Amino acid sequence: MTATSYRNISMKRIVLALIAVPLLSASVAEAQGDWWWGAEYTVSVPLGATKEFTDNTSWRGATLEARKILSQNLTVGLLFGWYVFDEAKVQTVSRPGLDVTGLPYNYLNSFPIQATAHYYLGKRRGTRLHVGGGAGVTINERRTDVGLYRIQETKAQFSVFPEIGVSIPLNWSLRGVLAVRYNYSLKSGDTPAQEYVGISVGLAWN
Amino acid sequence: MHRPKFNRVTWARGRVLGAVAGLAITTIVACYPGEPSNIGELDMVTTVYDTAFNYQTNRTFFQLDTVIHIRDTANPADTVFISRQFDQEMINLVRTNMVNLGYVSVPSGTQPDVITAISITASRNYQAYSFYPWWGYPGYGWPCCVGGPGWGWPTTVVTSYRVGSVFIDMIDVTRSISTDTIQVIWNGTLNGPFEGTEAVTAQRLDRLFNQSFVQSEYLRLLAVSPTP
C-alpha cells in the first residue's frame, strides 16, 4: 500500500471521527445533563515555524467542542480540531557542493485534542463574552512533496491555547459563536514549536 | 427567552444539527489543497560541484555531439525506449548556456579545458492505490445499519509512469589525462516524469537545462580572456 492510500484511509477515519463526535456526544449528554455542543468553521493564520513551513492562511479548518456546564459562568469540556495549512513555492535549497531546485508542496495537518475551560460574562440568556483556554495534545503531520519524492513526519506535541470569544443567542438553544484562539504546540524533539491564530465562526447548541 | 421543557425530540434535533454541521465542516476540510496541477511541477534540478575546484581556470569547452542513451543491458526488457527527437535541442541548450557563461567552444581535434557531455535514461515506475468507496454495496455498511449505505469493497488501481533523468557532466580534460580517469567537476541532473506532449517536453527541457546553469553561477567566467 502506498503512502497516498494510507493517507486517504487515515483521512477518512478522521472525517468519520469528526462527524461521529457530535452524534456520540449528544447521546452522552442526554444521559448526563446540561452540555453545550459547538461546530465551527475556522480560518487560521500561521505564525513562527508554522509560517516558515506553510506561509498561506489556512481556509480549511473545523473545530468541534463539547462543554459541560458547571455553573452559570463556568464550563469545562473537550475540543477537537482539524486545520490544514499548505504552501507551494519554487525553491532552491543549497548545501556545500549541492543545489537542488524544485517545487515543494508543504502541508501541515494539525489535529488538536484538548481539555478546555471557559468563563462567561453577561447574562445567561443574552449575548455573552467568554474567556478560556485549553491544554492537551496536538497531532501535527508535516509533509513535503517535491518532485516524485515525499518526506513526512507526524508528531504528537503538547499544546495549549488561550481563547476569547462572544456568543449571540439565536433562539433558546442555539447560539452563534465567534472565537479567537492562539494555538501553541511545544517543540518536540526535532519538530519545532507550531503556532497559529485561529478565528472560528460557528454554532453552539444544547 | 423561555426554554421549553426538555424532551427527546429536542435532543434528536440537536443530534441532527450536530451531524449536519460536522459533515459540512469536515467536507470543507477534506478538499485537499494545492496538489500539483501539471506534470512540469514534478521536475527537479540538482547540480553538484567540487567546492575545492577553481572554475575560473577554465576557458574553453567542447560539447560532445551525441547524447548518450543509457540502457539496462542486464535486463533489456526493462529498458524504456527514449526517442532521439530532442537530442539536438539538448546539445544546443548546453552549448548556448556555456557560451553565455563565457566559455569558448573549440572544434573537434583541439584540446579544450572541459568537455560537456549529456546522457539520459528512463525507467518505468509502478504505483498501486487502494481506496474504499464512501458509499458502497448495500448490506455491508458501517457505520449504518445492515442494508444501508456504508463502505464498499476496496478497489485497487495500478498505474505506471515513466521517470526520466538527464545528466549533464562537465569533465576536466587536463586532470582526466593526468589521472587516467574521467574527472567530473560539475554535474547537473534533471529529473521528472518522462511524459507529456512534444510541445510540453520541449518547454520543460528548455526550462530545466537553463535552470541547471542559472543555479550554477560559480561556473561563470569573470574575466573572459581565452587561453592563447
Descriptive overview:
The complex is a heterodimer of chains A (206) and B (228). Chain A is an alpha+beta fold. Chain A is built from two helices and ten strands, in the order H-E-H-E-E-E-E-E-E-E-E-E. Mean pLDDT of chain A is 86; it is low at 1-9 and 21-32. By secondary structure, chain B is of the alpha/beta class. In chain B, helix 2 (87-100) runs parallel beside helix 4 (198-214). Helix content of chain B is 27%, strand content 26%. Chain B has helices spanning 8-30, 87-100, 173-179, 198-214, and strands at 44-49, 60-63, 68-69, 104-105, 114-131, 155-172, 184-193. In chain B, strands 1, 2, 3, 4, 5, 6 and 7 form a seven-stranded mixed sheet that branches. Chain B has four helices and seven strands; from the N terminus they run H-E-E-E-H-E-E-E-H-E-H. The interface between A and B is large, with 60 and 53 residues. Strand 5 of chain A pairs antiparallel with strand 1 (44-49) of chain B.
Give the helix/strand layout:
The complex is a heterodimer of chains A (206) and B (228).
Chain A: H1 3-32, E1 35-47, H2 48-53, E2 60-71, E3 74-88, E4 91-95, E5 98-102, E6 105-121, E7 128-146, E8 149-171, E9 174-185, E10 194-205
Antiparallel strand pairs in A: 1-2, 1-10, 2-3, 3-6, 4-5, 6-7, 7-8, 8-9, 9-10
Chain B: H1 8-30, E1 44-49, E2 60-63, E3 68-69, H2 87-100, E4 104-105, E5 114-131, E6 155-172, H3 173-179, E7 184-193, H4 198-214
Parallel strand pairs in B: 2-4, 2-5, 3-5
Antiparallel strand pairs in B: 1-7, 5-6, 6-7
